Structure formats: structure tokens, C-alpha cells
Amino acid sequence: MKSLTNQQRLANLAMDKAQKKLVPFILLMYVLAFLDRANIGFAKQAFQLSTGISDAAFALGAGIFFIGYAVFEVPSNIIMHHVGARIWLARIMITWGIVAAGFALVTTEMQFLVLRVLLGICEAGFFPGIIYYFTYWFTASRRSTVMGMFYFGAPLSFIFGSPLSGLLMDMDGMLGFTGWQWMFAVEGLLASIVGIWALWYLVDRPEKATFIPEEEKQALIAELEEENAGKAEGHVSALQALANPKVLYLCTIYFMIQIGVYGVTFYLPTQVAGLLGKKVGLMVGFVSAIPWVCALLANATIPRYSDRSGKRGSLAAGLMIAAALGVVLSASGSPVIGVAALCVAASGFFACQPVFWTMPTRFLSGIAAASAIALINSIGNLGGFVAPNLRVWAEQSFHSPAAGLYVLGAASLIGAVLFLASIPMGIGSKTKPAVQDSVSGNQSC
Q: Which of 145, 168, 235, 325 is 20 to 30 A distant from 298 in Cα terms?
């Protein structure tokens, strides 16, 4: 096992402190972001019944969120690069929380579609901003592990958010409001409150971190500078990064991942309700949380294994294959098999993404990384627009609810093939495995 230099040891200590200080709060932000993005699935039946919104309009609204999101991703990340993460991430949370709460007032299809577009615009830049923010604080040897912790947000939003959404839905009629109105209002305003808190809590860069001793801080800064200096394609302009063939290839991979993620996520409560033969409520909320418990466990272990082994593309491909099988088998009419298959699908989809996000920062840094990460996320997330519409099209065309799941499974298999093809391209090839400090157990390369 390779021994660490004094600079690496001090940098590891600084990253430990940054991880404890920043990651839990960012995780809270992501939980609320994902909850406000996907809670439309809980409201589906009651929301459509109250407002008269058709299945086609609902599918369009579920996906149209990603149009505004995609258009404003790159500008948002470039703005964050210049004004700082603290102000910009707080702005994103406050505005999207207000818009998310506004869904409680929707009465027509047009209002629904307009608010979905606005929600995407307000949230644009949050996810790629966080990924870029982590490059300020963590070296490549720690990044997959930290990203895995960040990805706890999606499972946690369903583990705790699903029962919360179900409980709020069960408040139907209280104080004259429907259950879905309670759900949108409460969960939206929570995001705005945390956004205001972020203005006081977040720190832009290690240079401004008062919670890290000066010696450790300087060691971390030196490690990050040395790492970025070694990136051959790192020092290019934002526009040059957007035209990089490797970046465009990663956009395609992420697009396929998101088709699977959102094709399952938007309809998970409805699918679970169908398997159980019950309406969406607290019971369905608890059962819907089970796949996300499994995804949480996968994210707690697999990204850490990726850092320690150096495996990237091959590992991600295996996870996508598992996800594809899970999606297809969830078409089973058996509640046990169906829920178990959804557990495999959720684990595969979410554990592969922290591994994926180590790839663009292998060859880009600075504003080039900021713009490339935003482009990858924006193009990839158009899969969130395609997924619900693709699923509805397949179900209607083949007159079978299973057809939509088979199409999602096929998209996931394509993603697996693309991951495997990235290995000889040098994008998803094995990286230098991390080693551990024999004293503290910290990782380093």
C-alpha cells in the first residue's frame, strides 16, 4: 500500500471536515429538490380527478419540466462560477420552492404546464452546480464516494418523502383543501426555507473555510491545483468544452440513464398501487419507499468500491444491466416479484450515477468543467421529458402497461453498451485505485 505524503494527509483531513460540514446540508437540499420534482407522481390520480387534466397532458407536464431545465442549465452554471455557489444555490432553492408551492393553486391544464416549465427554469443549474461545487472541495480519489453520499438524496426523498407525501395526501378536506394541495404547499415551502438557510450556511471555496485549519486548507488547495494542472483538456473555454466529443458522448449516456430513472420514478406510486390493489395513500407510500431503501444501501457501498478499485465504465455498465432487468421484471403481476424488481432497478439506476459523474472531471476543470457538466446534465435530463411520453406511447400503441416497461428496459441496455464502449475511448477506463491512510483510514490516490 502506497504511503501518503504529508500534504496528502493534511488534504485528507481537510476533506474529512468539508465532507462533514457541507455534504449533509447539500444532501438535505437535494432531498427537497428531488421531492418537489417527483411528487407529482403522488398527486397524479387525485390531481387529475380534481382538475380534469388528461393523461396526455399529465405526461406532457411531467416531462416538460426538463425543457426549461435544459435550456438554462449551462448559463446557470456559468453564473455560479462567477457569483459563487452560496448565493446562486440559495437563489435556486428559494425560487423553485415558491413555484413548487404554487401547484396547490392549479385548476387548468395550461396553469399546470406553465408551472412545470417555470419549475424547470428555477431549478436549472442546481444539480450540475453541486457537482461542480464538489470539485472545489474534493480530489478525484474522494469524488465518487462523496457523489454517492449526495445521491442518497433521491432515495431519502422517497424513503421519507413518500410517507410524508402520502400523509399529506390523506389530509384531504382538512381546512377546505385537498390532499394534493397540502402536499404541494408544504413540500414547496420547505425548499424555500432551506434556501434561505443556505445563505448563512454554505461556503464558496476552501479559501473561505473558517472550519478548516490553515495548514490543512493550504494542503487541500495545493492538491486540487496539482490535480487540475494534469488535465490535458482542462484549460479550454466554456464553448470549446461544449463541443468536446467526449462531452457529447457522455451526454448520450446520461440521456439513456435518465430515461430509465424518470420512466420509473414518475409512475412508481401508481405502479405500486396497482401491484397492491390499493389507492395511493400512506400504505402505498411506505411500500414505495422500499426500492429507495435498497438504492440508498447501493449508493452507500458501490461508489466507495468504485473509488477503491478504480472501476468506472465496466461497473456502471453492470449496474445498468441490473436496472434493465429490474424494470422488465417489475411488469410481473406479483406484488412480491414486482416490488423486488423495482428494488433492483432503483439500486442500479442510482448507484451508477455517482460513478458516471467521475468521468467528465477526469479531463476537464474550471469553467470548462462547469459548462460541460451543465450540458451533460441538461441534455441527459431531456430523458426526463422523453421517458413519460415514451412510456405512455408504448402502453397505448401495444395496449399493454408492460410495453412501457420493456421500452424503458431497452433504453437502459443501450446505456450499458455505451458505458462499455467508453472504456477503450479512455472516458470510462479504470482509474488509479485509491489507497487508505493506515492511521486514519482516509482515501487518497
A: 168
Is the backbone of residue 70 left (phi > 0), alpha (psi -120 to 50) or beta? alpha
What pLDDT, on a 0 to 100 scale, did the predictor assign at position 380?
83
Q: Residue 330's closest CA among 352, 302, 349?
A: 349
Q: How far is CA 316 from the centre of its chain?
A: 15
In a 3-state reduction of DSSP, which class is residue 436? Answer: strand
**In sequence order, which residues have a C-beta less than 8 Å from that of residue 337 and are 6 or more positions away?**
329
pLDDT band at 31 (very low <50, low <70, confident <90, very high): confident
Instruction: Please name the residues in contact with 2: beta carbons below 8 A apart, sequence gap of 6 or more.
Output: 435
Rounded to an integer, what distance in angstroms lies between the CA atom of residue 240 and that of residue 236?
A: 6
Facing residues of 443 across strands?
Answer: 436
Place of cell 464502449: 421
Residues 369-395, mean pLDDT to the nearest whole number: 83
* More confident position, 249 or 368: 249
CA-to-CA distance for 134 and 227, rounded, in angstroms? 14
pLDDT at 26: 93
Q: Terminus-to-terminus CA distance in the chain, angstroms?
A: 11
Q: What pLDDT shows up at residue 1?
A: 44
Cell numbers placing 88: 446562486
Check: CB of residue 133 under 8 Å from CB of residue 204. no
Evaluate if pTM is beyond 0.70. Answer: yes
DSSP state of 444: E
Tell me what the mean pLDDT of segment 144-167 comes to.
Answer: 78
